[in-house]
Amino acid sequence: MSLKFLESENMQNENIMNRTFASFVNKENIGQNLTLIGWLEDFRDMGKIGFITLRDMTGNFQGVLAGEILSNFREIPRQSVIMVIGSIQDTRAASFQTEVKVQSVKLLSRAVNPLPIDPTGRVKSSMDKRLDSRALDLRDHHISSIFKIRSLVLNLIRNFLCSRMFVEVNTPKIIGSATEGGADLFGFEYFSKKAYLAQSPQLYKEQLTLALERVFEISSYFRAEPSHTVRHLSEFVSVDLEAAFLDYGEIMDIVQDLVISIINDLFAHREKDMALFYNKQEIKIDRIPRISYEKCLEDLKGLSEKLEFGDDLSDPALKKLGEIYPSFYFIVDWPTKLKPFYILEHEKKSELSRSFDLQYGNLEIVSGGTREHDVQRLRNKLVEKGLDPKSFSDHLQTFEWGMPPHSGFGLGFDRFMMIITNSTNIREVVLYPRDTDRLTP
Fold it and tell me: Looking at residue 147, what DSSP letter applies?
């Protein structure tokens, strides 16, 4: 290709190092000479003049070219990576404030034609096709914005919890027993021993309150549940927290403050990105109501959904509750028999547990509660749940070393991102989702 190349490889490398981003192409910088690198989204050939749209991680800009550069440019496929040297000038284009008068072009990487999906999003593709070409799918500005927001939310969570004196920890994901008594664990051989992939850090984070008092972890966990829904994955990211000397009411306060602060921050400081997902600030909350399990049964009875005390809330039941409570709400004081062995019951009403779930409509996001810290009662509960205390000996011994009263929660981060980005499928907010059918890419 006989494009007007830069004079030498050293000059090319120097220009790459000194590149400017698309966000710099604005009226404040008219007359500036610059080097830009990005993916060629569009090329409009008007004969004597041509217009290109180039996109990088900060946005896109329009370039105008003519003469020999235009003639040679016609050979470049869309979505190829190019380097442009030029100057910023005014434009008559309605979609751009300014444009770049192109003086030199370098093809850095040629894209095949046709591509498996349209990364501009103009031609829609199925979810499976998009996931098969996920790296290319991310060139769609709407899709890439989801993951930029995801990164931001992770930082907001860390900053929030650290400001509340929580210590970030990392616990094992390869474990030697089904620590919560669950059947939905991935098992495998580990140096001639049976091992599992962790489905939560529950027991570890409880143990860590013994010395660190307040801990949290953000990590991937695994569940071998054969679900085929838009809200379940086999590998998921969870935000887990545990705190000594706090009860479940105070933990709910933390959850409420965390959720509200993140949503308010996003709409206040990332308004442009959030506008991709919402036409207006549709998530408006200043507090999250707390609805008892028994009140939920009463509400459902009025909607002809008959459940007895002790019944779990089915998907149809939660959908009906979501019609009454369409935003965030806590369901508190679940029946003890519906909760894991480590959840503490109420002293005067042992059939109810000191537990909560945070819902958004019919979608469960958080589960938490006050934990049992008395070692003998914990042993008894394991037996009541049909579990062998010997399988939990390492865990139980820590409760003999001065285990404090403690409470905590686990937040399904991917589900939370569904709400923040107004997505209906959890696969939209996970880069490379893993479910019963997908193991690649």
Answer: H
d(CA 10, CA 85): 15
Q: Are the C-beta atoms of residues 79 and 93 closer than 8 Å to each other?
A: no
In angstroms, the first-to-last Cα distance of the chain is: 33
Q: Which CATH architecture has domain 9-109?
A: Beta Barrel (2.40)
Instruction: Look up the CATH superfamily of 137-429.
Output: Bira Bifunctional Protein; Domain 2 (3.30.930.10)
pLDDT value at residue 287: 93
Residue 330's contacts (CB-CB under 8 Å, 6 or more residues apart) are 252, 255, 288, 289, 290, 291, 356, 357, 358, 359
Count CA atoms closer than 13 A to 17's CA, side-chain side. Answer: 6
The amino acid sitting at 266 is L
12 pLDDT tier (thresholds 50, 70, 90): low
Contact indicator for 273, 281 with CB cutoff of 8 Å: no
Over 80: is that where the pLDDT of 235 sits? yes
334-371 residue pLDDT tens: 999 999 999 999 999 999 999 999 999 999 999 999 99
Structure tokens at 177: 């027993």
pTM over 0.70: yes
| R_g of the chain computed on alpha carbons | 27
For residue 385, what is the DSSP state? Answer: T
Q: How far apart are CA 254 and CA 117, in angstroms?
A: 43
